[in-house]
Specification:
With 247 residues, the chain is an alpha/beta fold. Helix 3 links the parallel strand 3 and strand 4. The longest helix is centred in the last third of the chain and has 30 residues.
């Protein structure tokens, strides 16, 4: 029995700032582990944000999510220039940053790497990751490399590995699927955060893209139902292990 007058310890309150680009590409399965660790989550739509964002400097974690635009389309989407500058400032301060898909590409650009349309076309679907050659992946990444685990890919662009980055994994189509910068920044080209139910909005929102690429929505749906639960469990384990390192 707990001693009288003592309260159970509560998680330390932390602040996570989330930059999003399209309404249905949200935190997904990343949200619950963050809240369980005591994070208060502030979501900001990058396209309508008033940069510079003071909270991007002071938050405990910056998360930059995916979106359909390309890093090189800054003339059409000028907020991308401000977003890259925001990420560069935070990276220079060596404060924790997680980038997913477009967020990973923006991180690469902020670190001086080239981002460009993938020469092998769009990579949309589910497949396993391959560890980078001659590298023992960090222990915190191991849940995403479990035998038989497929992750969701949904991108048409790729990037060069930034200077000083640790190359973590590849896919069959694209070599640079994830990289880390020391113990404070992580870029994931794939989508660890998706669920089978959440992807229904993606199928609707990206219907023209899928049609143009000749990709079957019913096949994507079947794969999501087959692999989604295992990915959700692995993502929760991975995120907690990574946060143990960066916080």
């Amino acid at each position: 029995m707990a001693q009288e007058g003592l309260r159970p310890s509560m998680p330390e309150t932390r602040h996570a700032l989330v930059l999003s680009h399209i309404v249905f590409e949200d935190l997904g399965t990343l949200e619950a582990p963050l809240r369980e660790r005591g994070f208060e989550i502030e979501s900001v739509v990058a396209a309508t944000a008033h940069f510079p964002l003071t909270q991007a400097e002071s938050c405990d974690l910056l998360v930059v999510l995916g979106g359909p635009m390309g890093v090189y389309e800054q003339r059409d989407f000028p907020f991308l220039t401000d977003e890259i500058a925001c990420m560069r400032q935070r990276l220079e301060a060596r404060k924790p940053v997680l980038g997913v898909c477009l967020g990973a590409q923006l991180m690469a650009a902020a670190l001086g790497a080239r981002v460009y349309p993938g020469p092998h076309g769009k990579e949309i679907g589910w497949s396993e990751l391959q560890a980078a050659p001659n590298l023992a992946p960090p222990e915190w990444f191991s849940p995403l490399l479990k035998d038989g685990l497929s992750v969701c890919h949904w991108h048409g662009d790729t990037f060069d590995l930034p200077p000083g980055a640790l190359h973590l994994v590849s896919s069959k189509l694209y070599a640079n699927q994830a990289f880390s910068i020391e113990d404070y920044a992580l870029a994931l080209q794939f989508h660890p955060e998706v669920t089978a139910s959440g992807l229904e909005s993606w199928y609707a929102g990206h219907a023209k893209e899928l049609q143009g690429a000749g990709i079957s929505i019913s096949a994507l749906r079947s794969a999501a139902h087959e692999h989604g639960a295992a990915l959700e469990a692995a993502t929760g384990r991975f995120l907690n292990l990574w946060l143990d390192v960066v916080l």
